[in-house]
Amino acid sequence: MTRKKKTLSFERELVIVGGGPAGMAAALSAYENGVRDILLLERDQYLGGILNQCVHTGFGLSYFKEVLTGPEYAGRFIRQIGNVPKIEVSLKSFVVCLTAEKKLTYIKPGELQEVKARALIMATGCREKTREMVHIAGTRPAGVFSAGLAQKLINIEGLLPGKSAVIVGSGDIGLIMARRLVLEGAQVKAVIEIRKESRGLVRNVVQCVEDFDIPLYFSHKISRISGRDRVEKVLVSRVDDASREIPGSQFEISCDTVLISVGLIPENELIEMAGVALNRETNSPVSEQVNRTSVPGLFVCGNAYKVYDLADSVTRDSELAGRMAAEYLSAG
Amino acid sequence: MIIKHLTCIECPKGCGLSVDIENCKVVKVQGQRCPKGEKYAVAEVENPVRIMTSAVLTRGLDIKMLPVRTNSPIPKSRIQEAMREIKRIRVERPVRTGEIIVKNFLGLGVDLVAARDVKKGDGSIF
Fold this sequence. Notes:
By secondary structure, chain A is α/β, with parallel strands linked by helices.
């Protein structure tokens, strides 16, 4: 017979879920606006979120007026949080359940915890769209990665995902990974974008693709991925204005790796569980004002609210979320 | 005179620049929305530079890969050489963000610095 693990339950003024740029900015701002009981839950073993794997520069120009890498940008907030004892950080803490009464259940090594939040800020970020969501036909060999996963493998785990890659989509992470793969000694055969122009920032097209003479095909798509155990090649087609494949335009590129960089979706399954209304198109909360949701006292900020181009903008809007939560608490 | 079209990469605005060049020297820059654009155009034509970032292997520390950067831009033409050098580095002692990993990197007068704090770890690989 298995014994049921003892469940601890307690109440906190403000709980923040997610210790990336959004959650850290919200926590610091809530503290500055008078909240003195803050619990910050982070599922990873470090604060900083995806910034830790973004070793390239491009962060902080607007917020700090300096050119920083992702880990440096995160580090500035991690140090500030470390100086505020009223912000309790709980790492390796993964929220599995959320109710409309703002009761959270989370797991951390060896424990199952419950906490009731008077105010709650969800800063859960976003996730990458997958191969399945862009309907690429073919086999299902090893070697197909989302661009952000490849970034984590290289920059956090020190593993090179492949030797010759084709990148699907020209989102910023895909462009940045094109450069990163080349620097690590892999070959990037092509970046394939179905639209007529880049989805990413122009500066990334210049410094990540043009700098390294990587072919970038606009108005093209991958029609098929082939390979038995490992990716062997992709079939590329030109498309017309309605994104239909143009017959006779196909050509093949041999490669052992395909990276998918076709956009991001806010990660909002927990608030959906709590009954918050979501926009089905974007997976963002239905909202009258930035950071607000249909549940009073439950705020969503950063990429979970909407997908931002810049971490600096995430920080700014998340500071507002911290203030909004403080105002909600002092009014209640 | 040659007219070259560039996209400024100094900030996310990505201004389109039109650069007048005479004898490999920039004589006029148009299209920039701030002074960074002109500086970028001159550097890009006369001696293109980039801040180099990567990650180096650690040993016995709490993260496996330590992100690093050059504290100033280095010539674009030296980037592949810089990568080969970076692959040879192992960091085995705890460092703080900004601490120098390699002084006078490749003799370029810039330092390779840590971009993250790294503490002692349990020595496991993952």
